[in-house]
Inverse folding.
């Protein structure tokens, strides 16, 4: 059966994921070392130890994401996170920065290393380099590849692959995206926050509801209509056209990934693990999504049809896409 | 948008009895103190936002609620006067609030669907949402524990009220 790798932003979400059938849970410490550094989220060292014990007692694994890029001269925070993850008996750490990966490989040779999606390793050369140089055991593939491309990559590498199957989508430059930095000075890559809440403001103006990120108006919708979280990549922009302006989602529509129906194809492509995005979401989200995907991977294992459309309400924009996996564009 | 149960409209239209708000404020504050005492991780997760003033606008409820976690104070305010000063606000129906608090619905999904709206300091709202989600509160159990020997009656009454109203009045468990 394919391994189901599920998110947890809090100890309660970790327990919900394990109880709902997660094979593996990924989470992070409550600081800048992980790419979901939001207020009220993540784990103290004590909570992480308790979470790992809870998961291990029920046969589940815990991966610790330390996947932001350390600031020069400030590496101690990231080194301590790696050292603590090893000491807490984490099943693996998920890393992106080559310097930090080298440090982890040298100082904790028995610690299993996974390459984060933030490393943007999207071809066999990049993946094999990390495997040969640092002993990386699994790569989380960026969400830019079709199923055919994943199949081709798996033929040319000797390590495991993990792919996202559900949750928020990025604009296909993970670990390289500077849109959040442009608007707020803070980014997921360096600070662990994309479009940080500290720079988000909602306001009612006339008959509309507005959402701003920093100085930018990102969404304006009539009152009573849903307002997406204001990220630049999924913003609604007005651009001058020939005689008339055009308004729309220039970079990306506010939709979420749902690759449920592609699970059999991903299995055939040689993918080891399926990842669910959403460490910033609640335990209710985690429980519902994990339960649905556990049923899906069990169905795939038995050659049964994939259930569909069960989770639309939980997605951003309440609409879903199969993203690049089934892309018809180049 | 999902159709959800609401309090009787009559409840929001009736003028409250003269001493209802202060008495309710005392009871709510005692309730909040008990929750904070039994769940110290709520304040630690709130971190720098523990001192924020949160306005809870349960739109089908008779009052506005103002929560100050660090001061362990929860007060009721009339809808007929200007809103009390606050740093962050969450607005929506009682059913959505209870479903989020008890782990039956995802807060982001309620927000994406427009059932909950937020205003003011977004970081403070996120911190509160995450802290309460991690606390896995059960309002029925908290009230039952406060009710001493009447706790059993309260649990049975809550279960009956949940069945009749459709409101989520207790924590939703994740079954393996």
């Amino acid at each position: 059966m394919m391994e189901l790798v599920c998110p947890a932003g809090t100890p309660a979400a970790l327990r919900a994921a394990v109880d709902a059938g997660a094979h593996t849970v990924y989470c992070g410490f409550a600081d800048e070392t992980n790419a979901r550094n939001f207020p009220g989220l993540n784990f103290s060292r004590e909570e992480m130890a308790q979470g790992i014990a809870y998961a291990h007692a029920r046969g589940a694994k815990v991966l610790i994401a330390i996947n932001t890029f350390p600031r020069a001269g400030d590496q101690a925070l990231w080194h301590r996170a790696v050292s603590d993850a090893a000491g807490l008996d984490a099943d693996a750490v998920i890393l992106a920065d080559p310097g930090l990966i080298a440090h982890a490989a040298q100082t904790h040779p028995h610690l299993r290393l996974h390459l984060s999606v933030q490393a943007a390793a999207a071809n066999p050369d990049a993946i094999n380099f990390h495997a040969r140089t640092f002993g990386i055991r699994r790569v989380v593939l960026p969400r830019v590849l079709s199923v055919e491309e994943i199949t081709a990559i798996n033929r040319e590498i000797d390590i495991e692959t993990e792919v996202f199957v559900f949750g928020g989508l990025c604009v296909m430059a993970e670990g390289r995206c500077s849109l959040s930095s442009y608007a707020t000075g803070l980014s997921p890559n360096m600070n662990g926050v994309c479009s940080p809440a500290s720079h988000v403001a909602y306001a009612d103006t006339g008959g509309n509801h507005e959402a701003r990120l920093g100085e930018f108006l990102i969404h304006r919708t009539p009152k009573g209509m849903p307002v997406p979280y204001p990220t630049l990549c999924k913003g609604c922009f007005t651009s001058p056209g020939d005689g008339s302006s055009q308004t729309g989602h220039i970079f990306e529509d506010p939709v979420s990934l749902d690759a449920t129906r592609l699970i059999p194809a991903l299995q055939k492509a040689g993918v080891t693990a399926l990842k669910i995005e959403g460490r910033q979401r609640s335990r209710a989200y985690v429980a519902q999504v994990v339960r649905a995907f556990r049923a899906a991977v069990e169905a795939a294992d038995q050659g049964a049809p994939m259930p569909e459309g069960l989770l639309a309400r939980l997605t951003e924009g309440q609409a879903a896409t199969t993203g690049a996996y089934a892309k018809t564009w180049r | 948008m999902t159709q959800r149960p609401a309090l009787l409209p009559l409840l929001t239209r009736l003028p409250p009895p003269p001493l209802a708000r202060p008495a309710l404020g005392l009871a709510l504050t005692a309730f909040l103190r008990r929750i904070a005492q039994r769940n110290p991780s709520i304040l630690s997760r709130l971190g720098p936002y523990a001192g924020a003033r949160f306005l809870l606008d349960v739109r089908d409820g008779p009052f506005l609620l103002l929560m100050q976690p660090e001061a362990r104070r929860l007060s009721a305010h009339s809808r007929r006067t200007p809103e009390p000063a606050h740093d962050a606000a969450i607005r929506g129906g009682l059913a959505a609030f209870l479903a989020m608090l008890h782990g039956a619905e995802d807060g982001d999904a309620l927000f994406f669907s427009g059932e909950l709206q937020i205003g003011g300091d977004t970081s403070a709202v996120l911190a509160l949402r995450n802290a309460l989600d991690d606390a896995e509160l059960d309002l029925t159990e908290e009230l039952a524990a406060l009710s001493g020997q009447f706790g059993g009656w309260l649990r049975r009454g809550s279960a009956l009220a949940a069945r009749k109203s459709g409101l989520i009045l207790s924590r939703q468990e994740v079954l393996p």
Q: What stands out?
A: Residues 163 and 169 of chain B are 10 Å apart (CA to CA).
